[in-house]
Amino acid sequence: MKAFEHQQEKEKMAAFGSVFMPEMAMARFDGTAWGQSAIVPSDSISLHPGAHVLHYASTCFEGLKAFRHEDGSVAIFRMDKNVARMQQSSELLSLPTFDATLLSQMIVDVVRHYAADVPTPPGSMYIRPTHIGTEPAIGKAATPTLTSLLYVLLSPVGDYFAGGSRALRLLMEDNARCAPHMGMIKSGGNYASALQPTMQAKAKYQADQVLFCPNGDVQETGAANFLLIDGNEIITKALDASFLHGITRDTILTLARDLGMKVSERELTVEELLERAAKPGTEAALSGTAAVLAPVGTLIHQGKEYKVGNGEPGSTTAKLRQTLNDIQWGKTADTHGWLTKI
Ligand SMILES: Cc1ncc(COP(=O)(O)O)c(C=O)c1O
């Protein structure tokens, strides 16, 4: 580790996402073409106060990670998927479109720039591509921004849920996280709309997260997908426009199939979830880039608490998490071609 001393590194990783590398990759769309991307200081950007993003929320972002392997090399996990999701988010928000190669190159450039600072496992370098509408135009509530800014921030991180050892408490809410046609877009507004319910769930029920279940349909939490593990079967909502198509979700389902598990992507109702949760061996987990695969021990529904299985972190969750970490950390063969070595 070149740039950070060990203790410094620990301190820097204490609060997820609050420490940034001093430079980032940035490119501008001027209304007709994308300019050359460059590595620039990450402490500030200059925006007109009337910028489209500040008024009409023309913004989307991504979250992915680079990992340090034992041989010292650095690998980015499933970059192509995050780039594709960011292209889709941009398109659905009517932000300027961009080629996958532009963003991929920006990610690789900035991670390479800070390759020496990528933490060792269980830490990693969190990568935050961001796309914002910059046109100064406050009369454009119903018209897309002409110009935009794309940048890639880096933030060294530790283990978000402290090793995944504590089983989480989820409050099941009857409301949606966001408007149904926005769910598959990774846009800032969706997070803003989930904030109040999540804060209330924390204050009132000491819940870690809200599991959004509009009309009894088990969807996702504020920042992760929900998976139910019943014996050899893993059950999760089938993809539709109402929730974020998590890349960790896709990864875990692929690994589960590899391990011979039955994967059921279908509707999961609150009623079925609570019924299955009552069985002794049942497990539940949250999947996400930050959460990795975090065990869920308690569901709170209409003021009542329900244990999932015995309420403790389950062995299948732990096995799937370990299988994923082993690939990310370069300890097992990357048979699906998920790593980009830089
Ligand atoms: C709302 C929401 N759902 C699911 C996920 C999981 O997505 P991924 O596995 O791609 O990180 C996230 C992200 O991080 C999220 O913010």
Question: Which SSEs are present, and which pair or pack?
Answer:
Elements: H1 6-12, E1 23-29, E2 38-41, H2 52-56, E3 59-61, E4 64-68, E5 74-77, H3 79-92, H4 100-113, E6 124-133, E7 148-157, E8 168-173, H5 188-205, E9 209-212, E10 225-230, E11 233-236, H6 247-258, E12 262-265, H7 270-277, E13 283-288, E14 292-301, E15 304-307, H8 315-328, E16 339-341
Parallel strand pairs: 8-9, 8-14, 11-12
Antiparallel strand pairs: 1-2, 1-7, 3-6, 4-5, 4-6, 5-16, 6-7, 10-11, 10-13, 13-14, 14-15
Helix pairs in contact: 3-4, 6-8
Verbal overview:
The longest helix is centred in the middle third of the chain and has 18 residues, at 188-205. Strands 1, 2, 3, 4, 5, 6, 7 and 16 form an eight-stranded antiparallel sheet that branches. Helix 3 packs across helix 4 (100-113) and helix 6 crosses helix 8. The chain has helices spanning 6-12, 52-56, 79-92, 100-113, 188-205, 247-258, 270-277, 315-328; strands at residues 23-29, 38-41, 59-61, 64-68, 74-77, 124-133, 148-157, 168-173, 209-212, 225-230, 233-236, 262-265, 283-288, 292-301, 304-307, 339-341. 27% of the residues lie in helices and 26% in strands. The protein is α+β, with helices and mostly antiparallel strands. Residues 1-5 have low confidence and may be disordered. The protein is built from eight helices and 16 strands. Pyridoxal-5'-phosphate (PLP) is lined by residues 63, 220, 222-225, 244, 246-249, 287-290.
Question: Can I get a quick summary?
Answer:
It contains 8 helices and 16 strands. By secondary structure, the chain is an alpha+beta fold. The strands form 2 sheets. Strands 1, 2, 3, 4, 5, 6, 7 and 16 form an 8-stranded antiparallel sheet that branches.
